[in-house]
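Run log, item B.
One chain of 143 residues. Sequence copied directly from the ordering sheet:
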Amino acid sequence: MVKTGTITINSSNEAPEFIDITEKVQEEVKKAGLKDGNVLVFSRHSTAAVVIQETEQLLKDDLKNFITALSPKERKYKHTDCPDHIADQMPNGHSHCQHILLGSSEIIPFVDRELMLGTYQRIFLVELDRARRREIVIQVTGE
């Protein structure tokens, strides 16, 4: 059986921003009513990633620095200079480059309706661009 839903997250102007969505995903798994299976957590955006990582603040700072160093906002990007930007789009070539390193989704197994994450693992939406409303698809598959 498959149950699909969405959660909405509002990000801030701090990018990259790690937003812990673990509890929201856990709620969706329980709401689906399936005992054992997998849950797909998928970002519907090309500048907001989904990752599994620890929640320790100094590590998150290290990860932010790492992501930013690989693709800094200040670098020149062809996408940023594109004259064909749609009206609500901001220069964000760096966000797309950062996203390709992190990815759009994670699959997490669950048993007895509980996510099988490790002791320190959490699920994060990583905002790479600017403050906005983000939609995350939660697809629960199991029995």
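Observations after the first pass:
- The first strand starts at residue 2 and ends at 10.
- The first helix runs from residue 22 to 32.
Flagged for discussion on Thursday.
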